[in-house]
């Protein structure tokens, strides 16, 4: 079983997100107060911290120093268990993963890895998520 390492939101797209201790997640919408929430197929973004192992050595410091661009940072779940069409439970929330990465890769900062290994999906069941909550593949 994994856990939530960080929760992050932003009011505007394309900006770094700020860390918060908890979030309210709305079914079929996303995280309340986050710019990416809405009626579409990338309502929420998740970065498994294990994805940092895939960052080239010449980029790792830049990625680690970059601000958060994902909504939820998790640890303890192998990347291969977080494939497209898998579902995860985070606290009381259920998220279905629809994409891994983005169509166009970013080359700088934390978006470097989020654009390649971030998981993006929709909220199947809403609720509250707190830092430290358990994460499991269902």
Automatic annotation (TrEMBL):
This is MOSC domain protein. GO terms for molecular function: catalytic activity; molybdenum ion binding; pyridoxal phosphate binding. The lineage of its organism: Bacteria, Bacillati, Bacillota, Clostridia, Eubacteriales. Residues 18-138 form the MOSC domain. It comes from Clostridium ljungdahlii (strain ATCC 55383 / DSM 13528 / PETC). It comes from the Bacteria. InterPro entries: MoCF_Sase_C, MOSC_domain, Pyrv_Knase-like_insert_dom_sf. PROSITE patterns: MOSC (PS51340).
């Amino acid at each position: 079983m994994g856990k939530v390492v960080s929760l992050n939101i932003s009011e505007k797209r394309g900006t770094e997100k700020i860390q918060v201790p908890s979030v309210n997640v709305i079914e079929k919408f996303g995280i309340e107060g986050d710019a990416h929430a809405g009626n579409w197929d990338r309502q929420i973004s998740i970065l498994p911290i294990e994805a940092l192992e895939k960052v080239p050595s010449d980029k790792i410091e830049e990625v680690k120093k970059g601000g958060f661009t994902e909504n939820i940072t998790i640890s303890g779940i192998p990347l291969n268990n977080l494939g497209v069409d898998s579902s995860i439970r985070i606290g009381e929330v259920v998220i279905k993963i629809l994409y891994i990465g983005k169509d166009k890769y970013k080359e700088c900062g934390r978006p470097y890895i989020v654009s390649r290994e971030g998981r993006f999906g929709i909220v199947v069941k809403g609720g509250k998520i707190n830092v430290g909550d358990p994460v499991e593949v269902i």
